[in-house]
Amino acid sequence: MFGDSQFEQLYKTLDAGMVDCDCGIRCGKFCCVGNDETEDPFKYLLPGEAEFLVLHNFHEHAILEDFGFVIRYRTQKPGACTCENIREYRPFCCRIFPFRPVIDEEKEIVTDLVKAKGERFSPCWIEEPLADWRKRAIEAWNFLLSDRSNLIFYAQFYLCLKKSETTSASFARALAEDEDFHRSIVGLDSLSNRDLLQHCRCFFDYV
Asked: Is the pTM of this model over 0.85?
């Protein structure tokens, strides 16, 4: 699991902007506050990221919600950007939005980026980030996915999202009541990195 130094490195890699302007002017800060038709995009924290951010008082600006398989964060004030007053410590998923990694499962590396599509992402107008940012983002994804805890996190996230299609039960209840689901979650620890990467690719295709 990433510690303070790894998160500092990850954030530093993605400190620069993905475009050469304030992208939020054009879309009304969609990725931060959503719009009238769409709630703000689901914002998640990586394993260990909540603890890292709390050390830097992120929780004073955001509401943290623990769903068992993921910690979500959202703004304390509707219509406001969570990270506006603590931009230096905006989380990873905020820095990378709306781009997803393209994973080469044979080489077990991230080779490119692709923009998340669909109605939930349509207000975001950026189609092509700056070349330097793209390079840094690919580097950041490879650094992130080199840690097995993060591979397991995304694999588990995917299994939980799929499970939510058939039940409204909480993560803890689903684990207790569904033997197959419990087995699939517990079994992630024994999977190879390549198999976990396959689950990760499924997650990024899903969202």
From this structure: yes
